[in-house]
Amino acid sequence: MSTLSEILREKEGAPLFGIEQGASVLDAVNMMNDCSVGALIVNDVGRMIGIFTERDVLRRVIGRQLDPATVRVGQVMTGRVICCTPATSIDEARELMRSRRIRHLPVLDAEGEVVGVISIGDLNAYQTTHQETTIHYLHEYLHGRV
């Protein structure tokens, strides 16, 4: 059974993007745009206290006609974050994202520290790669080259 640790290994070295809860939404959005990410881990003194996503911007800032320059990330972030561990199976993570309608899943180690964020795009890319590999081996098998 494949686990999230496999995807994290593939993403090894990729930066983990976070922002302090006191930063403005405008700063967070600029960081998300500059880094081409759809979510930021919200920190308070180095510990995750929430996640700030594109959906938070649309629903809690733009939808309420708030000023992104004056609203703080901590005021509009998602505070009840659904997380998993590196040992979580890819199928479990996919089902969790589907059932909870989320696109970003922080991965925590045994001490509760964030070691990565898995996106639905990461899961799709992993599945596509493994399906292509399976198809290749099946094709080779059918043509007697294995």
What can you see in these coordinates?
The two termini are 24 Å apart. This protein has one domain: CBS-domain. The model has no long low-confidence stretch (mean pLDDT 92). Strands 1-2-3 form a three-stranded mixed sheet. It has helices at 4-10, 25-35, 54-62, 73-76, 90-100, 120-142, and strands spanning 18-20, 39-44, 47-53, 104-108, 114-119. It is of the alpha+beta class.
Alpha-carbon Rg, integer: 18 Å
Tally of strands: 5
CATH superfamily: CBS-domain
Give the ordered list of helices and strands: HEHEEHHHEEH
Please indicate the count of domains.
1
The total of helices stands at 6
Task: Tell me, briefly, the overall form.
Answer: elongated
What's the CATH architecture? Answer: Roll
Helix-strand category: alpha+beta
- Please name the CATH topology: CBS-domain
Q: Could you give the distance between the termini?
A: 24 Å
Spatial sequence of strands, sheet with the most strands: 1-2-3
Largest sheet: 3 strands, mixed
Question: What percentage of residues falls in helices of 4 or more residues?
Answer: 40-55%
Mean pLDDT: 92
Percentage beta strand: 15-25%
Low-confidence spans: none
Layout of secondary structure:
Elements: H1 4-10, E1 18-20, H2 25-35, E2 39-44, E3 47-53, H3 54-62, H4 73-76, H5 90-100, E4 104-108, E5 114-119, H6 120-142
Parallel strand pairs: 1-2
Antiparallel strand pairs: 2-3, 4-5
Give a quick rundown of the structure.
By secondary structure, the protein is α+β, with helices and mostly antiparallel strands. The protein is 45% helix and 18% strand.
